[in-house]
Structure formats: structure tokens, C-alpha cells
Design brief:
The protein has 279 residues and is mainly α. It has 13 helices and no strands.
Amino acid sequence: MYPTDLALFESKDMSMKKHSIQSCEDILRKQIEYNTEHNVLGSETAVAEYLLARTIELQDAYLELHEKLGSRPPALEVFLGLLLSVAAFWNPERLSEARSQRKRLEEINDSIASKASELAELLEHRAVIENASQFGGGTHYHGINVILEAATENHLFNSWVREDLKNLSARFDLKYWPSLADVVQEIARDASEAEITSHDPITCASTSSRRISLADFLRALRAAIFENSARNYGQIPNDFRLTDGALASLTNCALDLQPNAIIDSQYVKRLRQRDRELE
């Protein structure tokens, strides 16, 4: 290649890079403007500002994004929106909180299972004594009565359900209904056998590992891309795939990681290899 040709090539390459940066940052600025105008999604606005402040680190990633998504609107806007959302709501701090909530829910279910089993035994024991002795406390013995009393302040129940339930309980005597002990024992069984799952695939993907790390964020972003791909009736092409370097840069900047915490392309490559081995 002659020097003049090389200069022309470099000029064209620089022009493409500038155009790519401009296109991506215009989308980010529009999102900031919308959020500010409507007073919404302040956390996403913060992420967009992180990205705008680190243009130099992102120029190659923006070029790659524009090359792969720029000709397929609104795929580029959708991807950048996903990046803002995942960084805002599935960042390391939020994911640490989510893991704590899952652990606490597991602990609560264990406690419910234990206490409900103990309560079921007490209810059964009380019923045996009351049926075999000359004493009683006038306490509830019918599950329907418990429901009726518990719903005293429930207007909709009182208006639409109470009379039908009372009539139903009048039609069938006590032998047709589970005992209070049986009802509580079912609560214990249900809590004991509960399997904690997330309400959405992004949280599921990002909390699947045993240890907290930046890999959680990358898994969340990957799940978000999958959920918004064409195969799921979204706008991201099914064959869309970012290079390890681009993913590392986007992660570093979207999470505003400082020099002592940033990841590189090798980190992303190792993560992809590990996840493939686990599939």
C-alpha cells in the first residue's frame, strides 16, 4: 500500500470511528435527556454519564457495536438500553443484595418449616386432650372458622365469599375437612420443600455462581441480550456476539470501575470458557 493510500485508509478508519462514537453517545444523551425530563431511572442516567465520561476507553467497543448493530435499527439503541439497565439494576452491589435476600428467604423457609411442624404437633396434642377430657378452651377447631375470623376486615371476602363458604361448611361436617394440625403441617411441608428461584432469567443467570464476582454482571448482560434477541421476538440479531475486549471495556466503564478493579479481555475469555464447560 502506497503512503497516500495508507493515509486515506487511516483517514477513513478514523472517520468511521468518530461516526460510531457519535452515534452511540447520541443515544446515551437522548436517554439522559428523556430520564431527566420525566424524572425517571436516575440510576440508568448515572450509568450513561459514566460511559460518556470514558469515551477514549470505549471507542473500539463503539466501533464494534456500530459495525454489528448500526445497520439494523433499533438494535443499537436496544443494546445500549440493555447495558444501562443491567449496569443499574444488576451491578455488583445490587447482586450482592439479591444474594442476601435469597439466603434470607431460605432461612425464613427453614424457620417456618420448623415452627409450623412444632405448631402442628401442639394443635394435634390439644385436640386429643380436649376430645378425651372434660376440658376445652373454646378455641378454633375448624379450618373454615379460622378463615372466616381472619377475613373479618376483608371487605371483598365479606361481600363475595363469606356466605358461600359458610354454606359450604354447613353442608359438610368436620370429617370432610382437614384438621387445623393437618393444615399447619402442610405449611411446614411446603416451606421445607421450597426451591428458591428468581422471578426473571437475568437475575437467575447472574446469581447462579457460588461466589460474588464481576462475572455475575457479565452473565446478567449475556442473559439480557438473549432475552432481547430475535429468537425471543426482540431486536438483537441471534448471531450478535461482542469480542472479549469490547465486553471488558463496556463492563469497566458501565460500572465505573477504577484502575485497580478493571477487567481485561482475558478475564472475559476465561469466563466464557468456564461457562461453556458447565453447560
